[in-house]
Amino acid sequence: MARAKKQRCGRVLAAGAGLSCLLMAAASRTDADVLVNFNGGASDLSNNFNVDFDGTARTSISWSANKGVVDNGGNFGGGLVTDSTQDSTAVYVGNTTAPFGPITAWNLTGSGATASVMFMTPSIANETDRIVQVGFMSRFLSSYNSENSSTAFITTRVYANGQFEQQVKSSGSTSTGNGNVANAGAFFLTNNEWYKLSLTVTETAPGTFTLTSSLDDYDTTGTHLIGNVFTGTRTGVAVTGFDTTADQAGIGNGFAAVRQISNNPQMDNFGIAGTSVAVLTPEPTTLGLAATAGLLLLNRRRRRGA
Question: Which residues of 169-206 are buried (b: 16+ CB within 10 A; e: fewer)?
């Protein structure tokens, strides 16, 4: 009898877990690009992003009314300011109710997806450190840091001295793999100049990716393209974690995000191009109903066996 009860409990728990996984995995796809220009107020940040460091919320990325590019009637518009004493990543979810309700991921298979951000550093204090980092990750309550073994990510980042790097991390690991598309000295970033950092990620086979990093110069206004600074591509890059059930974005998908690291950069115009995926996460009431249903089912079976 004890064994039978354990089996019934196991079936109920498995059913509840299965419902939770189903709600997380259910998704619809739409060909729709996104550009957040931060001219709508502080809610452009709070309504669309989780600012995080390894699962802990942070406030070191914040909104400002006049720290963005010149896109507000000839004046500097809204943008993001940063405090580089606190490493943090802003993960785009496109929903005010995350982690409940639908959130937005991006399909990395087929033609892939591109994440980009514009940034400017008023005073570069450390040329040999990373400034900003952009790309995709497998979990939305996480960051571009190696300490969280559950998270996989694929990113690119730039140094003021011209080192242009792609950094990846597989889930189940606390180590990263780094590969340069440009070495130090290839170019140098300039104070008060706006740049657009982009990464295109294409999954060519399960766990294998082609990565194209690009850096463009948009002068001191952020609205006039001077030209491309550097573009580099690596193929056959191996990353695990985007094709497992642990991927909160769904198999073959990722969440777009940007990380600020050093030199207190200002950021604006966070963009994603590709096929968006509406990932359904369970509402608290739904989880409560599922748990109640499971308990009722268990109680019913107990009465039958009495």
Answer: bbbebeeeeeeebbeeeebebeeebbbbbbbbbbbeee
Q: Are residues 162 and 77 in the same domain?
A: yes
pTM to 2 decimal places = 0.83
126 and 11 assigned to the same domain = no
Please indicate, yes or no, if residue 204 is contained in any of the structural domains. Answer: yes
Cβ atoms 275, 113 nearer than 8 A: yes
In a domain, 236, yes or no: yes
Phi, psi of 304 (to 5 degrees): -65, -35
Cα 141 from Cα 139, distance rounded (Å): 6
* Contact indicator for 106, 280 with CB cutoff of 8 Å: no
Q: Are residue 114 and residue 255 in the same domain, yes or no?
A: yes
Question: Residue 82 phi/psi, 5° resolution?
Answer: -135, 155
Whether 278 maps to a domain, the answer reads: no
The CATH number for 258's domain is 2.60.120
How do the pLDDT tens digits run along the chain, 306 residues long? 444 443 444 433 333 334 334 334 445 666 679 999 999 999 999 999 999 998 889 999 999 999 999 999 999 999 999 998 999 999 999 865 555 668 899 999 999 999 999 999 998 988 898 999 999 999 998 999 988 889 999 999 999 999 999 999 999 999 999 999 999 999 999 999 999 999 999 999 999 999 999 999 999 999 999 999 999 999 999 999 999 887 899 999 999 999 999 999 999 999 999 999 988 775 544 434 444 444 444 444 444 444
In this structure, are 104 and 150 located in the same domain? yes
Within this chain, do residues 98 and 247 fall inside the same structural domain, yes or no?
Answer: yes
Total domains present in the chain? 2
What's the sign of the alpha-carbon dihedral 19, 20, 22, 23? positive
Give yes or no: residues 6 and 44 share one domain: no
CB of 199 within 8 A of CB of 212? Answer: yes
